[in-house]
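The methods section describes the discrete structure representation at length, but only in general terms. What matters is that the chain and its backbone geometry are given together, residue for residue. Nothing conveys this as quickly as seeing an actual entry. For illustration, here is how one protein appears when written out as sequence plus structure tokens:
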Amino acid sequence: MRKLVFFMHSSLDGFVAGLKGEMDWININDAMFDFVATMTDKADTALYGRVTYEMMQSYWPAAGEQPNASKHDKEHSAWYNKVSKVVLSKTINEKGLYNTKVIGDQLADNINKIKKQDGKNILIFGSPTASHSLLSQGLIDEFWLFVNPVLLGQGIPLFKGVTETTKLKLIETKTFSCGVIALHYETKRN
């Protein structure tokens, strides 16, 4: 069965963005981009909430074609353009969207159907509201948390609405020269 793998940057005090969605505090370097490329190589589906999907859709389809495109922009744009996309939203319609499925209800049933299909992993980048919904229904199989060396004090929380204990097993850690520590956890299933 395919795995749903959660990727998220976080401040040390557990926020994924500032109160207005600010993410200018996130540290990223080429080594991290190369590392993420190894994860996208293992995935053929990207899952987003509506807000993140609209942000990604406005940038990634043509990012690799820009004259000043970085190696990462070219690679991630090519990956983004070929993978299936799943968007969790009650407000957008998938009509006219290329290679994109919109899920507006029956979240667990729909996600579990996708997980049972043949294929590689399903990655969810960011999308805090969608992630909160997936987590509350026990649908996330693995977590990659990129903890940044900053305290925000307030903002959008990494985890919200968790009503039951979710036990995790630490699989590995990775430290980047920009000060970010990546923590890889697997959800323990009974």
User: Anything to note?
Assistant: The chain is about 30% helix and 30% strand.
